[in-house]
Design brief:
- It is a single chain.
- With 143 residues, the protein is mainly α.
- The protein contains six helices and four strands; from the N terminus they run H-H-E-E-H-E-E-H-H-H.
- It has a single domain, classed as Winged helix-like DNA-binding domain superfamily/Winged helix DNA-binding domain (Arc Repressor Mutant, subunit A, Orthogonal Bundle), CATH 1.10.10.
- A two-stranded antiparallel ribbon has the order 1-2.
- A hairpin with an 8-residue loop joins strand 3 and strand 4.
């Protein structure tokens, strides 16, 4: 699975909802780690950062897809909290990717997406640190 397809599937799993930056980062990380047999090679390379697992290319891919009219980034200015969701064209492309995914992976991703978006920042980061303590080594966040 390519980076683009993985991000489209993750965005589609929100079923019209949005993601904050920490939520999309952690969703991609958790899905990649907890569904390893879906990937011949992991699309993203995470490293421990200020708030746990981080890969800058997620934002680069989302920015590129925004420029192509597939993803909306709210607000569009830098330096303010952002959120991400799909445009109408993005929904079509994303549903195609999600629809081709094996049912067990699709259901797991939808469930994981709902959880990531339902818990607080502290609960999300804390849960990742508990399960993946190696991702805490550079953290500025103390749970």
């Amino acid at each position: 699975m390519t980076k683009r397809k993985m991000l489209l599937a993750c965005l589609a799993a929100a079923k019209g909802g949005t993601y904050e930056p920490v939520q999309i980062q952690k969703l991609v990380f958790l899905f990649q780690e907890k569904a390893p047999d879906l990937f011949k090679k992991k699309p993203f390379t995470f490293f421990p950062y200020n708030y746990g697992p981080f890969d800058q290319t997620i934002y680069a891919e989302l920015d590129q897809m925004s420029g192509e009219g597939l993803v909306r980034i709210w607000p569009e200015t830098y330096g303010t909290p952002r959120s991400y969701d799909l445009t109408e064209d993005g929904k079509k492309a994303a549903e195609e990717v999600l629809g081709k995914m094996e049912e067990r992976f699709r259901d797991f991703l939808i469930h994981l997406s709902a959880w990531v978006r339902s818990v607080s920042f502290a609960a999300l980061v804390g849960a990742i640190y508990k399960e993946f303590p190696e991702m805490k080594v550079n953290s500025v966040f103390r749970d």
